[in-house]
Every structure is written in C-alpha cells, then in structure tokens.
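2024-03-11 09:14:02 INFO worker-7 job=invfold-0412 stage=load source=structure_tokens
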C-alpha cells in the first residue's frame, strides 16, 4: 500500500479509501466485516462513512454503517491509532426541526452520536456532507473549529460544495482564524468530469485541499460489468448506472479496456489509475461489495498512467464547457 498526505496536512492516508455507504444495504453486516478486515490487512487505513448511511433503506436505522464500523473495531481488536476514520454531518437524523443541517446545535449533537456509534473518542476527518443555505457559514465553521479545539475531531473537510461555497468557506476560516477545510469529496470520475474540473480543480490545487473522489467507478459502470450490446445484469444501482450509458461513455469504456489489456490491468484499475495520476487527488473512495471487487481495486495502488495514456483518456472523455 502507498500512503499520501491529505492535502497540505501531515496526515498520511492510504492511496485508496474504503467507502461504506453499501454497509447494511447491499452488503450484509457479516460481509461488511470481511471487507473491512481484508482492506485493513491490505494496508488501507482510511475509512469513509456518514451518519446517514445506510438509513432509510429496508427500514435501516440511520447510522448503521457507523455502527458496523464501530462493532468491527471492537470485535476484531483493531488498533485505533492505525485507522483514519472519516464521517459526515448534514443529513436528517430525526424528526425534530434541529435534527438536520449545519447549525452549531446539530453539529455538536451529531458528532456525539457518531462517536458513540463508532465507539471511538475522536474522529480523524469530520466532513460537512453538503452545504446548508439556512445556516451562516461562519456559524458552521466556528462550531467545527470548536470541535477541533475540544478534541472531538482532528481535521475537517467538505463534500458536494459549489466553487462559490468552497471559496466562501476558505475565506471565512482565514478571516476569523478558524480551522479550514483540508479536503473535498467531489463526485468525480472519467464519465463525470465537468462538475469538478470546471471550477473546483483549480481551487483545490491553489489552496492545497486533498481531493477524495466518490463514485470513481461511476456506480460500477467503469468496471466492465456492463456491455453495450448485451443484456444488463441485475444490480442494486442499475438506475444510477443507466445515465452513464451514452455513446461517448461506451467509447471511454472500450478505450479503458484496450489500454488495460496492454498493461495487464482491468478496466476498473485503469479508471482508478487515471484519478491517482492527477496530482491533487489524494485517495479515491472505493465501495467494494465483496473481497473479489476489493482485490481488483487494490491492484490500482501505485498505478500511474503515462502521459500518452492520460492524453488518450482526456480526449475520449472530454467534456464540453
């Protein structure tokens, strides 16, 4: 396993981050333990979750993924200092008016719930899941700064922010001398480029934010599981995958397969390698449902595409401004 600094910080995280949105949903609790243990044995120290995962699915309680991670840590005596645990706050966690958002009240209530479910004392990276237009950004950042000072979390990050929202947040932290966001989770892959690359990439590069792309394999589209002229396989994410089935994206898939064959690599490894070859990307968030998928993803570690391969992939997946 290779390790990288999270943005401009000194925190070392594995080159791949284990996402857990599927835990308790498309992956049973028992199988979740197997994936967690195999990932840890392979050197993945970075685990990403959220307090709303996998709530609302099959009558699951909110916080189920966090609960599974906490039980895994205790059941298998996983050394806490060998893990970097990231979770998120923003979504609704109850029926009361203050059970959602990024107000000071909800942030303090939410982190205590996450710590209890995870069965840990401190969260390594606490992230705002998406923006809250009803709460002043200064209030949110002051609350997060207090969490850092009080030892509830070590670093803070954000996810699904607009360029304007991210810049406003960074300026607010600078103006008020508050802890600033050190990472961004964007929706980013070879078939979903424009949202991040249009404005966010240059901000992350300039201000030294670590980039943690989620859905780097486009909900499974960039794995070779789907073929243009064959029946679609059953999948819990099929409706999400359908939107990627465009003529351009089938070409992207074919090109990945062709380049991968020349290297002895799978389509998914090449897709992850494309992200890992971008200088500002710290750690793509993978979401394997079983050990086979995990092992395939792990083979992308250390993969750096050549300039020619990067140019080819940039061209076939190019987005229009």
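2024-03-11 09:14:09 INFO worker-7 stage=emit residues=321
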């Amino acid at each position: 396993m290779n390790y990288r600094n999270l943005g401009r910080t000194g925190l070392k995280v594995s080159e791949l981050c284990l996402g857990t949105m599927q835990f308790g949903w498309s992956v049973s609790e028992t199988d979740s333990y197997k994936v967690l243990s195999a990932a840890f044995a392979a050197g993945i120290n970075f685990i990403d979750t959220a307090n709303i995962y996998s709530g609302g699915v099959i009558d699951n309680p909110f916080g189920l993924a966090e609960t599974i991670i906490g039980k895994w840590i205790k059941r298998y005596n996983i050394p806490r200092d060998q893990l970097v645990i990231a979770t998120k706050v923003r979504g609704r966690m109850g029926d009361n008016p203050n059970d959602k958002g990024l107000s000071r009240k909800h942030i303090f209530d939410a982190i205590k719930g996450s710590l209890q479910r995870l069965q840990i004392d401190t969260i390594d990276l606490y992230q705002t899941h998406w923006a809250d237009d009803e709460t002043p950004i200064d209030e949110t950042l002051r609350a997060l700064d207090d969490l850092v000072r009080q030892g509830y979390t070590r670093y803070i990050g954000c996810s699904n922010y607009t360029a304007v929202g991210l810049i406003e947040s960074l300026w607010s932290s600078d103006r008020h001398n508050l802890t600033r966001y050190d990472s961004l989770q964007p929706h980013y892959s070879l078939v979903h480029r424009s949202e991040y690359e249009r404005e966010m990439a240059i901000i992350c590069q300039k201000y030294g934010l670590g980039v943690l792309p989620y859905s780097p394999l486009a909900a499974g589209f960039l794995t070779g599981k789907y073929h243009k002229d064959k029946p679609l396989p059953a999948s819990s994410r099929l409706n999400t995958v359908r939107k990627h089935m465009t003529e351009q994206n089938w070409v992207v898939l074919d090109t990945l397969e062709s380049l991968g064959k020349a290297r002895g690599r799978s389509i998914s490894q090449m897709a992850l390698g494309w992200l890992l070859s971008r200088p500002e990307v710290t750690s793509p968030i993978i979401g394997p449902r079983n050990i086979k998928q995990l092992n395939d993803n792990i083979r992308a570690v250390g993969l750096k595409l050549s300039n020619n391969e990067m140019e080819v992939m940039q061209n076939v997946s190019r987005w229009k401004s």
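2024-03-11 09:14:09 INFO worker-7 stage=report msg="The mean pLDDT is 94."
2024-03-11 09:14:10 INFO worker-7 job finished
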